[in-house]
Design goal:
By secondary structure, the protein is α/β, with parallel strands linked by helices. Helix content is about 45%, strand content about 10%. A six-stranded parallel sheet has the order 1-2-3-4-5-6, covered by helices on one side. A two-stranded parallel ribbon has the order 7-8. The structure holds pterin-6-yl-methyl-monophosphate.
Length: about 270
């Protein structure tokens, strides 16, 4: 899953594709580089970010989704808002990637239930401006995330969304400390045991920058690519359904090697 952030302020690539033409061109390039899905978002979720107005978010994403879906891409919309999800589905998106797992907007579950969309429910506890205050997990982060995602799954089913349409995501970096991100990655099998496909978004995140910190401090966002690619291969090996990444060509190349060798081994 290649990331197209149509935002002025995303931590990883904010401001680079925030006009229509460059966002569409970027999406097309990611497809050429091997992305199977384009994840198009108009709201930055970086720690401390303020939310755009609904109208702003709609203006940012809907025209880009329409163009890329018309070009044949499988499109996912990265939104926490029911209204944006509904408009995106009308414009040709087939996946709704909701970093709040339906908690941010009470209307989201109804929109998903009334559609045929695949729904990515990410683990989330609070909006970006204060999420760093919510990193306490009484019996460990892995158990906490699994329990809270299981509750989202139950709420979705209760709202009329078939379980078969739901993908789960541990939400790396969202109300997690650096250490907790690694614990979650190590304990991914427990999340997979809930029986749903798992998507992971680790690309360029701060915990990788911290791992690679040198005398000049944390490794810069645009210099975390190799670590992200290594992690992508390890996660593919563990059966993750999708990887949400910025560096699509490098990731797709690495996965091609992994796939070829896996095939050879039978
Ligand atoms: N991370 C970001 C945004 N959307 N969606 C899912 N499903 N999982 C993630 O981990 C995730 C996400 C934040 O990263 P960005 O600013 O690079 O888009």
């Amino acid at each position: 899953m290649g990331v197209v952030n149509v935002t002025p302020d995303s931590f990883s690539d904010g401001g680079r594709w925030d006009d229509h033409a460059s966002a569409v061109a970027h999406g097309r390039e990611l497809l050429e580089h091997g992305a199977d899905i384009l994840d198009i978002g108009g709201e930055s979720t970086r720690p401390g970010a303020t939310r755009p107005l609904v109208a702003e978010e709609l203006d940012r994403v809907v025209p880009v989704i329409a163009d890329l879906a018309a070009a044949g891409a499988v499109v996912s919309v990265d939104t926490m808002r029911a209204e944006v999800a509904a408009a995106a589905l009308d414009a040709g998106a087939t996946i709704v990637n909701d970093v709040s797992g339906g908690l941010a907007d009470p209307g989201m579950l109804e929109v998903i239930a009334g559609s045929r969309a695949t729904y990515v429910a990410m683990h989330w506890r609070a909006h970006a401006h204060h999420m760093t205050q919510f990193t306490s997990y009484r019996d460990g982060v892995v158990a906490g995330v699994c329990r809270e995602l299981e509750a989202r799954l139950e709420a979705l089913v209760e709202a009329g969304v078939p379980e078969s349409r739901v993908v789960l995501d541990p939400g790396l970096g969202f109300a997690k400390t650096t250490e907790q991100n690694w614990e979650l990655l190590a304990g991914l099998a427990q999340l997979q045991a809930l029986g749903r496909p798992v998507l992971v978004g680790a690309s360029r995140k701060a915990f990788l920058g911290q791992l690679l910190a040198g005398p000049d401090g944390v490794r810069a966002v645009d210099q975390r690519e190799h670590a992200g690619v290594a992690l992508a291969v390890l996660l593919a090996e563990r059966g993750v359904w999708a990887l949400r990444v910025h560096d699509v060509r490098a990731t797709a190349d690495a996965l091609a090697v992994w796939q070829r060798l896996t095939q050879e081994q039978g």
